[in-house]
Amino acid sequence: MTTAQGTTGDLHGVVEHRLRGIDQRYTAGRRAIIGLLVSAGHPVSIGDIADSLPGLPRSSAYRHLTDLEAAGIVRRVTANDEFTRFELAEDLTEHHHHLLCVSCGKVIDVTLPAGFEQAVTETIGQLADAESFQAHSHRLDVLGVCGACR
Ligand SMILES: [Zn+2]
Ligand SMILES: [Zn+2]
Question: Which pTM does this prediction carry?
Answer without folding.
Answer: 0.85
